[in-house]
Write a structure and sequence with these properties.
The protein has two helices and 24 strands. It is α/β, with parallel strands linked by helices. It folds into two domains: 8-92, Rossmann fold (3-Layer(aba) Sandwich); 94-201, Hexapeptide repeat proteins (UDP N-Acetylglucosamine Acyltransferase, domain 1, 3 Solenoid). Helices cover 12% and strands 26% of the residues. The radius of gyration is 17 Å and the shape is globular. It has helices at 15-26, 74-86; strands at 8-11, 34-37, 49-50, 64-67, 90-91, 94-95, 100-101, 106-107, 112-113, 118-119, 124-125, 130-131, 136-137, 142-143, 148-149, 154-155, 160-161, 166-167, 172-173, 178-179, 184-185, 190-191, 200-202, 207-208. The protein has an eight-stranded mixed sheet, with no helix packed on it. Strands 7-10-13-16-19-22 form a six-stranded parallel sheet, with no helix packed on it. The model has no long low-confidence stretch (mean pLDDT 96).
């Protein structure tokens, strides 16, 4: 049973941080136990709002932290997770109650899984991943650290996604392929073959690009 009586520290308060905050409140987490660490908010210790780097202070060691940084800051999210892990901080993961997660799946630290996701048996979701609404991850698929899956992504079985990847809304990935580290897959792409690290692909049939602009 999940513990809703812990202190939760949201690191970053852009679109992902704000969405996570509202989702926690909608799921009966206590607002007085939620702390926010960001540089683009009005600081107020009484309302538990602090500077971004303040999470490193010893006074906050009892908090369960979750980096809530979006796809444009996935490298920073990874470095923060490394810092939290190396310094023995508590790390929080959130799985929405409407998501299905197989008992045989493995979910890492600092993971966010949003409503109506379906995580099948044998799946491994590594630290810091974000899976947005209605993502489907079929059996025996692995998702690398701090990858970002947009709404409606469908991953078939035996896929390996390396760390720091972005997959756009509605993309479909075929069985038995590998997505190289730090790759970007555009929305509605149908990916049927493995791609190397730092790739940019989009379309159906998919095509390689020099870059993709994500807005």
């Amino acid at each position: 049973m999940e513990n809703k009586n812990i202190k939760i520290g949201i690191i970053g308060f852009g679109s992902v941080g704000k969405q996570l905050y509202k989702t926690l409140l909608e799921n009966d987490y206590d607002d007085t136990l939620i702390y926010i660490f960001a540089d683009d908010i009005d600081l107020n210790e009484e309302k538990r709002k602090f500077k971004f780097q303040d999470f490193k202070k010893d006074t906050f060691k009892d908090i369960y932290f979750i980096p809530a940084l979006g796809y444009l800051s996935k490298n920073l999210r990874l470095s923060i997770l490394h810092y939290l892990t190396e310094n023995n901080y508590n790390i929080f993961s959130f799985i929405h109650p409407t998501a299905f997660v197989s008992k045989n799946a493995k979910i890492g630290k600092g993971v966010i899984i949003y409503p109506l996701c379906n995580i099948d048996q044998g799946v491994v979701i590594n630290d810091g991943c974000i899976l947005l609404n209605s993502t489907i991850v079929a059996h025996d698929t692995q998702i690398g650290k701090c990858s970002y899956l947009s709404p409606g992504v469908c991953l078939s079985g035996f896929i390996k996604i390396e760390e720091l990847c972005f997959i756009g809304a509605g993309a479909i990935l075929a069985n038995n392929i590998t997505v190289g580290k730090n790759s970007t897959i555009g929305m509605a792409t149908c990916l049927t073959k493995s791609i190397k690290e730092n790739s940019f692909v989009i379309g159906n049939p998919f095509k390689h690009k020099e870059s993709l602009t994500l807005i």
